[in-house]
Amino acid sequence: MADDRSPGNRLEQWVSIGATIVAPVTVVSAVLFYFGYVSSTSEFTYFGVDVDTIGLSTQDYIMRSPQTLLVPLLVFLLASAGFLALHIAVQGRIAVAVTQPADEADPADPDADSARRVERIRQMAQRSRLLGLAILTVGVILLFTYSYVRDWALYGLVTPLLIGLGAAIIAYVSRVLGLLRRAEKPNTAQAAHADGVLLARRIAGVLIYVVLAASIFWATATVAQWSGRGLAMYDAGHFGDLPSVILDTKERLFLRDPGIEETLLPPSEGQTFHYRYRGLRLLIEGQDRMFLVPDQWSASDSTLIVPLDGSVRVQFQFENQPP
User: Helix or strand or coil: residue 283?
Assistant: First the structure.
């Protein structure tokens, strides 16, 4: 007992608990960072900016990911709830089909016999597995014909959804068939283990779950790309919601974007800034630099990168709405 309470043992316990907590947190952070990066890349590419030039930190990408993942997370939760309800219903039906005595069955029901009910459930499961195989096959065909259908706008979402849906149906049907086998013959699992069939089924199940996880990851990444592009298009249509910037420079910038006004500042003693530009909006502030866009979107617009090193003077303009 004294050894169990020693400082060394307590330290090992705390380290073990800490490792148990840190590992999932690290995985979640990596996933959030990835989807935040994907969304940000798609968003700023719309404005002609390579996201790596902005200099966002890991925390910035993680903070930008929840908005992207909100819709996929809600869909996943609703699908999980639907699957749970379906699983409970199927389990109840299997239990009734297997355990209901023959003398309690309704003679007017052609499926009253236990064996017939179990066989009917098995046939429905086998047909569902064929449906899952067909859906999975369509998804795999789209996967290997990427070079021909890559210009299809929905390719990045439809393909993983088909593969994931097919894999999910196959995995669940296999689970249902396993429940039927165990309900009918409790010793079937031991015989299957003796023949090595159980190991093969487990390996196949693991592979199916890996395919399902990869499909969900792919579909979510596609949604993240669409979300980033949607945010960019919304911002481009609502530049008025971005902070208004007045930029003073030492040299003329020769900006030709529509809506940008250039003013020559009056000369004065000690004045180092000679040109003032209005009609600019702050798109994002990165590491020691600002990314400015014109006040109104145009196909000929460009993003202006302004270093924050004293070579320019930046003013943020108040909104016109009085307090």
Answer: strand
User: Could you identify the residue written with the tokens 């929840």?
Assistant: 66
Q: For residue 323, give the H/E element and its range.
A: none
Quick one: the chain helix, strand, coil %, rounded to 5? 65, 10, 25
Q: Is 2 within a domain?
A: no
Q: Distance between CA 242 and CA 282 in Å, rounded?
A: 6
Looking at the fold, whether 102 and 71 belong to one and the same domain comes out as yes
- Per-residue b/e over 225-255, b at no fewer than 16 CB within 10 Å? bbbbeebbeebbeebeebebbbbbbeeeeeb
pTM: 0.77
- Which residue segment(s) compose the domain that 76 sits in? 7-236
* Domain identity same for 80 and 180: yes
Q: What pLDDT, in 10s, does the model give residues 195-213?
A: 556 677 778 778 888 898 8
Q: Which helix (H) or strand (E) holds 224?
A: helix 197-237
